[in-house]
Specification:
mainly alpha; two-stranded antiparallel ribbon; 2 strands; 48% helix; 8% strand; globular
């Protein structure tokens, strides 16, 4: 698995740049990953990211957009506003988690 340095963080990534070891993630790295895709994280972003990480720890896989919306109590429209274009994929990337099943 490829290894890369990102703003002083040595991380293992897959071919698409998603972290392959969620334990390498921290909130400082999340800010760096977000900046890589043009986002500045706000409290609303953190709510989604913290839900995603906690859910991953319990379920063992990255939550779908519907799951984040339903169980995380964040409307889908808001998720699209926070993570424009492909919110599930972008949330997983910034949260240091594998791409959700079904994402292209």
């Amino acid at each position: 698995m490829p290894e890369t340095m990102l703003d002083g963080h040595r991380i293992h990534v897959d071919a698409e740049g998603f972290l392959t070891d969620p334990a390498e993630w921290d909130e400082e790295l999340a800010d760096v990953l977000a900046a890589q895709i043009g986002l500045t994280l706000t409290d609303a972003h953190w709510k989604a990211l913290h839900f995603l990480r906690a859910d991953f720890a319990q379920q063992g896989e990255t939550a779908t957009l519907r799951r984040v919306s339903t169980l995380g109590a964040i409307p889908v429209k808001e998720l699209f506003a926070l993570f424009p274009g492909k919110p599930a994929k972008k949330m997983a990337y910034v949260a240091g988690l594998p791409k959700p099943h079904g994402c292209v």
